[in-house]
Structure prediction request, 512 residues.
Amino acid sequence: MGVGESNKLGKVPEKSPLAHHSEAAINALDDAGLELSDVDALFTAGWSTLDVAEYLGIQPRYTDSTSVGGSSFVIHVAHALAAIAAGYCEVALITHGQSGRSDRAPIPRNPGTPMAQYEVPYGIIGPPVSYAMAARRYMHQYGEDRTRQAMAEIAVSTRKWANLNPMAYFYDKPTTFDDYHNSKWVAWPFHLLDCCLVTDAGAAIVITTPERARNAKNGSVKILGAGEGHDHSGISQMPDLTSAFGRHTGPQALEMAGVSHSDLDLAMIYDSFTYTALVSLENLGFCEPGEGPDFVASQRTAPGGDFPMNTNGGGLSYTHPGMYGIFTVVEAARQLRGQAGERQLEDCNLAVAHGTGGLLSSTGTVVLGTD
Amino acid sequence: MTNPTPKPQPIPQPESDHYWEGLKNEEIWLQRSKATGKFQFYPRNFSISDPETGEDGIEWVQASGNAELFTFAIVHVAPHMGFVGDVPYITALVQLEEDVIVPTNIVGVTPEPESLQIGMALKPVFEHDPDGQTLLKFTPA
Prediction:
């Protein structure tokens, strides 16, 4: 497996979303010791593979534009694995590129969806509002003060990781608990520091056969297990605001990999909001429903803690262009290959990457191991 | 403010015309499965609790309007230019007596967490737009 980001993340008005796709693709292929001409399968979300393949100048024989939010790219990993195993292709390229901050031509929403009809007219628009309503329900069920403390713990611990990642938006921005509690309200109960960034960025992943992976110049990782699915689109249709679909995809991915929670050395958990990470830990089965606040207490997920989570700085403080999921896999691969610089974990052999997309709607989970 | 950005308007679909027309008359009409007795929101062309009977398996029933607050958020940063003049405003999911969840706004209270308790009783407020649809909002009962 090869991985890469676009050359510059953050505020990049001089690059189009497709330019982020192409830079990341070329960087990931270079990482894998491959070239664009080797690619025979293309996966992307947000954009159609038609547009991305045309821009890249490639003619894939296998194509997958599954687009279910930020988790899509984690789901693409599972799809690529299946397509390669079935003999449809040998070199699968997953690309992402988004100018969440600087886009000159944002993609309009479909006004015909039930969400557009029943939620949007009431100002229930975009992720912060919907996730905030889910978080408020969690607080009601499991306690407001301990939920607030858990959200603060995650907000601070994740940004400590960003302080170790030169590519992270918060690299030079130390963040304290006071900073968290004093940051402005975006959508109560969310402070600004509960929310992910809005950046311009791209990333790409190359997946190939074990035979071809032997040529990977920076090493490779194995995909051991995967799960995907979704249970609603708009937040008002979510069956349980405190339980996302990771309750299925987590156990499925771990079972396929033949590993248990205690075997994992790294958890890359999509953190669109602090609450997303908190509830995902419960859904994946690291702890029981309502126990997340105890699980993340005392900076356990920070550098030096015994449960390293989101070591790149996460969507909260590394980068988040809109659909961040691919970056969970990129960081997991780097940690497993021992190439994570100052933030490198000791003995990182097994990692879970978990994407959440839409409005807590879809999840994709993969378990990755050293090759 | 001159020429403010309009709010996005609901575009009724064939299966929801009855719902939106009802709101104009200050009535809440919901679909119920004839077989299971379960209500559903939003309207569909079949019952999700009894899919096989199709359109024949559903009936329209007028809801009481009695509701409880299920959860809420207080929006301070407008997520759309049409709502810039409204912040802070309260978004909510409310549970109708008929056991369906409806997305809405809570109006007639100060937009502060202290004004709202989950489980509090609510009653409907019909917000008419002479050029468009009527929105179903709620206020403490």
Summary: Chain B touches chain A at residues 7-13, 16, 41-42, 70-80, 83, 86, 88-89, 91-93, 101-105, 113, 118, 133, 135, 137 (CB under 8 Å). Helices of chain B lie at 17-24. Chain B is about 5% helix and 35% strand.
